[in-house]
UniProtKB/TrEMBL annotation:
<feature type="domain" description="DNA primase/polymerase bifunctional N-terminal">
    <location>
        <begin position="11"/>
        <end position="175"/>
    </location>
</feature>
<dbReference type="InterPro" id="IPR015330">
    <property type="entry name" value="DNA_primase/pol_bifunc_N"/>
</dbReference>
<dbReference type="Pfam" id="PF09250">
    <property type="entry name" value="Prim-Pol"/>
</dbReference>
<protein>
    <submittedName>
        <fullName>Bifunctional DNA primase/polymerase</fullName>
    </submittedName>
</protein>
Length: 320
């Protein structure tokens, strides 16, 4: 089978699977090889069009968005090994097991899924200098290079190939909540100063001058209000650069948890790493108060023992 015939065969498989495809140039630009690909954001090409496009070798593109059944693609292109692996590790296993992963010609990764909710192309997480995103998506109005494209589609001369998941065009359909989990974990990698400032302002706006609804006469209530997360987590190997995003022990890159503000005004820790030891979530994520986290880390969750310990540290009103 010639290269052109092989790409045509793949294009037909994709269209039969409900994916809109377009031909791409083989000059390393990854640009469409037709005058306009806009029509194929609204409809899937006919077989006659496919035959015409792929008479000669061309790259193959998959159009994201509603036309392809709500296709959305996560694109990891900057420092992809570290960022992708850390993001992948934090995904709940039930979601992770569904997702097809493709390695790109540039050494990055594409993660594909369908959902009833799909947006346009979005940049999700940046490094501190905001030079180029760690993570972005291809959605409505976007496309990706497909596996099965000739090597010349990318300047590297390396192939696009699927490395995990059911073979394309089989695609999982995620719920809106599952999709939100992917996005939430990806956003946690944003290191830009803008993101840090927004987080600091968010915490400052939501932190009341006087915490209510918490009985600070009890050792656990006082601990929830007065203790510092650094005193709770650092002795157990957790690390943080800003006091808001925390990385679990043994991890070298990417946050495993984030400090938020509960409705009672207390700081809580939302953990979304399944490898976070005693603080690992049972499901997608788990939120810990300071006292509960202290008890889990130091007393196997025994709150009575933990209460005695924090009282000895001076938290709570002394008994009469």
């Amino acid at each position: 089978m010639s290269i052109a015939d092989a790409v045509l065969y793949t294009a037909r498989c994709f269209t039969e699977g409900g994916l809109s495809v377009i031909p791409l140039r083989l000059d390393g630009t990854k640009r469409p090889a037709i005058r306009s690909w806009e029509p194929y954001q609204d409809r899937i090409a006919t077989d006659d069009e496919l035959v015409e496009w792929f008479r000669e070798p061309k790259g193959l593109g998959i159009v994201a968005g509603v036309v392809s059944g709500g296709l959305e693609v996560f694109d990891f292109d900057l420092d992809p090994l570290r960022v992708f692996n850390s993001w992948w590790e934090q995904l709940p296993s039930d979601i992770r097991g569904k997702l097809p992963v493709c390695e790109t010609g540039g050494g990055g990764f594409h993660v594909l899924y369908r959902c009833c909710e799909v947006t346009g192309n979005k940049k999700i997480a940046f490094p501190a200098d905001r030079s180029k995103p760690y993570v972005e998506t291809r959605g409505e109005g976007g496309y990706i290079v497909a596996t099965g494209s000739p090597l010349e589609v990318h300047t590297s001369g390396s192939p696009y190939m699927q490395t995990m998941g059911l073979p394309l065009p089989d695609l999982p359909i995620l719920t809106a909540n599952e999709r939100a989990t992917l996005w939430r974990i990806a956003r946690s990698f944003d290191e830009s100063e803008q993101a840090k400032q927004e987080c600091r302002e968010h915490l400052r706006r939501q932190s009341p001058t006087v915490v209510t609804e918490v009985d600070t006469s009890t050792p656990w209530g006082a601990f929830d209000v007065e203790a510092k997360w650094s005193d709770i987590l650092t002795p157990h190997g957790w690390t943080s650069q800003d006091g808001e995003r925390w990385m679990r022990p043994g991890k070298k890159f990417g946050p495993s948890a984030r400090v938020n503000i509960a409705t009672n005004g207390c700081e809580v820790l939302t953990v979304y790493s399944s490898s976070a030891g005693p603080l690992a979530p049972v499901g997608t994520y788990q939120t810990w108060g300071k006292f509960s986290a202290f008890a889990a880390l130091n007393h196997s969750g025994n709150r009575s023992e933990a209460a005695k310990a924090v009282r000895q540290l001076g938290y709570g009103r002394a008994a009469a």
